[in-house]
């Protein structure tokens, strides 16, 4: 079975500091894509960042970057210079070859302390 | 800007009535769209994959007769909750990709359904 595990139900960080959200996944496939989505209080799902499994280079998007460890099946999200607007639920997800369906983790609620 | 819209955003209905939720792809002709359900403080649960011009593919445990999906055009998929009951109250979200397993899914803003 393909699964995604986010072991941190809740995280908090001081504004302007850095926080890392953890994600591990399990699949027997070698070709897949990984995503981090953000769901703020409005509940609109917003793509934060995506990573192609065949790429060794970690994806970055401004203050957001990932640490992709394919052998360990780990895909953590680092948020630098945290801002109040970063407060949200963060979901890790992946999709594998031959399947269009996203597999989601349980989510991590991130709180930003001013 | 938004690439997927949903209507209505909020609906309250009486038990036993049916409710239709529309999902529109605004910038792309989507042959496939997806319907999710999300309970408070939980993750998204895929209900079904909506296929333009053919029957939807439902996930295990999802009642096909309860949640009717129609994908009559390349930009519109509808989810009808038939004979709604209080336990159907939830947040329903649709999404679309551009086709293919590697494509990013973009989500609608969701519809809150409350069945009294």
Largest interface: A-B, 25 and 23 residues
- How much strand content do the residues of chain A show? over 45%
Fraction of residues in H or I helices of chain B: under 10%
Q: Which blocks of ≥5 consecutive residues of chain A have pLDDT under 50?
A: none
Largest sheet: number of strands, sense, barrel closure of chain A = 6 strands, mixed
Tell me roughly what share of residues is in helical segments of chain A.
Answer: under 10%
Structural class by helix and strand composition of chain B = mainly beta
Give the termini separation of chain B: 34 Å
Overall shape of chain A: it is: globular
The largest sheet of chain B is: 7 strands, mixed
Strand content of chain B: over 45%
The number of E-state strands of chain B comes to 11
In whole angstroms, the N-to-C terminal distance of chain A is: 41 Å
Q: Which overall shape of chain B is indicated by the principal axes computed on the Cα atoms? A: globular
- Mean of residue pLDDT values of chain B: 92
What's this model, at a glance?
The complex is a heterodimer of chains A (114) and B (116). Chain A has 114 residues and is mainly β.
Q: How would you describe this structure to a colleague?
A:
- The complex is a heterodimer of chains A (114) and B (116).
- Chain A has 114 residues and is mainly beta.
- Helix content of chain A is 0%, strand content 53%.
- In chain A, strands 2, 5, 6, 10, 11 and 12 form a 6-stranded mixed sheet that branches. Chain A has a 4-stranded antiparallel sheet with strand order 3-9-8-7, with no helix packed on it.
- In chain B, a hairpin with a 5-residue loop joins β4 (32-38) and β5 (44-51).
- Chain B is globular, with a radius of gyration of 13 Å.
- Chain A binds chain B through residues 32-33, 35, 37, 42-47, 50, 52, 91, 95-102, 104-107, and chain B through 32, 34, 38, 42-44, 46, 49, 91, 93, 95, 97, 99-107, 109-110.
């Amino acid at each position: 079975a393909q699964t995604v595990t986010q072991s941190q139900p809740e995280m908090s960080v001081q504004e302007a500091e850095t926080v890392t959200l953890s994600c591990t996944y399990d699949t027997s496939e070698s070709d897949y894509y990984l995503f981090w989505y953000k769901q703020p209080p409005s509940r609109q799902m917003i793509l934060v960042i995506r990573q192609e499994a065949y790429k060794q280079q970690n994806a970055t998007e401004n203050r957001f970057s990932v640490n992709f460890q394919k052998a360990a099946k780990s895909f953590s999200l680092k948020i630098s210079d945290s801002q109040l607007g970063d407060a949200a639920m963060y979901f890790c997800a992946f999709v594998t070859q031959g399947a269009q369906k996203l597999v989601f983790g349980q989510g991590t609620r991130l709180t930003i302390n001013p | 800007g938004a690439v997927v819209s949903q209507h209505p955003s909020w609906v309250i209905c009486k038990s036993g009535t049916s409710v239709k939720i529309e999902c529109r792809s605004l910038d792309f002709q989507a042959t496939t769209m997806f319907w999710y359900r999300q309970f408070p403080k939980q993750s998204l649960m895929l209900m079904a994959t909506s296929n333009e011009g053919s029957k939807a593919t439902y996930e295990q445990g999802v009642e096909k007769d309860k949640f009717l999906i129609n994908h009559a055009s390349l930009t519109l998929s509808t989810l009808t909750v038939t004979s709604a009951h209080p336990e159907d109250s939830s947040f329903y979200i649709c999404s679309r990709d551009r086709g293919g397993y590697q494509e990013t899914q973009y989500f609608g803003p969701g519809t809150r359904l409350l069945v009294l």
